[in-house]
Amino acid sequence: MKDRLPRKLAAILYADVAGYSRLTGEDEDATHRTLTEYLDLISSTIESHGGKVMHYAGDAVLAKFEAVVDAMSAAVAIQDELKTRNEDVPDSRKVQFRIGVNLGDVIEDRGDIYGDGVNIAARLESLAKPGGICISDAVRSAVGKMLARASP
Amino acid sequence: MKDRLPRKLAAILYADVAGYSRLTGEDEDATHRTLTEYLDLISSTIESHGGKVMHYAGDAVLAKFEAVVDAMSAAVAIQDELKTRNEDVPDSRKVQFRIGVNLGDVIEDRGDIYGDGVNIAARLESLAKPGGICISDAVRSAVGKMLARASP
User: Fold this and answer.
1) Which of A92, A120, A147, B63 is most buried (most C-beta within 10 Å)?
2) What ipTM goes with this model?
3) Could you tell me which residues of chain A have a Cβ less than 8 Å from any Cβ in chain B?
């Protein structure tokens, strides 16, 4: 029998752009310029909150944190800053991210993370509103009262 | 006015696992082991056909080729080999990839490719059957009669 693959507990943040295909189809250049600007912002916010970007995939970012509170703070900081940057942009051209945050064991391999905990973060993300954050019960329990202060 | 971002014509191959969340939920270790084995196979097949992997994202791979015929040959070779490896695996545990192949201009930036052509490859992929390949009209026109020989 094969050894069980090692696991490590992580807070998992998954983000991607709401309506990316539509935005790209309407204006490929403008969408790409805004996307790269926002991905830079997201990446630096993740790092300044102690997280690590595991991969980019088009309009998507996957990151892990060693503390749930850091993942939540980063998610809130990202959405706050993007809201400000999007304020003067017409609704149809706003590049808005959805964010999912989950907490669970992940398989670390080849510089990326895998497993159910990651897939659930991506599913939570798809449930978030544009500009919003969707978290799992595990995250809610872990951060407790901090949410009342931090939720956008 | 900003300069138009440079474009380059590419054949775009996008692949990911059909039912990955279900497979992972049922057996995280076995799914991850098979996934990494198959991703290695896919990566080496892409390279041996003159393609380049642009990124991995969990169970997904994005690659570009400078010739459509190379992208199609790689896609067919991948599905042929995976079919063989899956032969003795029970249906519920088969790790099968869907593949989408598109042809179009892409924006190359930061070691990845972006734009409508990439998004369409991902949409085609979602329309493919597990173990199958879904191609755009542009690809069909470009490869012409080669398809009759190469389709699995």
Assistant:
1) B63
2) 0.83
3) 2, 4-5, 20-21, 24-25, 28-29, 32-33, 35-36, 55-58, 60, 62, 107, 109-110, 112, 114-116, 118-119, 122-123
| CA angle, B5 then B7 then B12, to 5° | 135
What is the tens place of the pLDDT at every residue in B46-57? 999 999 999 999
Task: Identify which of B21, B110, B114 has the shortest CB distance to residue A119.
Answer: B21
What does pLDDT average to over chain B? 93
Q: Tokens 């990316």, residue?
A: A20
Q: What's the pTM value of the predicted model, to 2 decimals? A: 0.89
* pLDDT, tens only, B77-118: 999 999 999 999 999 999 999 999 999 999 999 999 999 999
Q: How far apart are the first and last CA of chain B?
A: 48
Closest among A91, A146, A122, A109 to B32, alpha carbons compared: A109
In A90-135, DSSP assigns E strands to 97-109, 112-114, 133-135
Task: Report the candidate in A139, A146, A142, A133 with the shortest Cα–Cα distance to residue A15.
Answer: A133
Query: Which tokens belong to A34?
Result: 């805004």
- Which residue(s) pair with B13 in the sheet? B63, B101
CA distance A57 to A43: 13
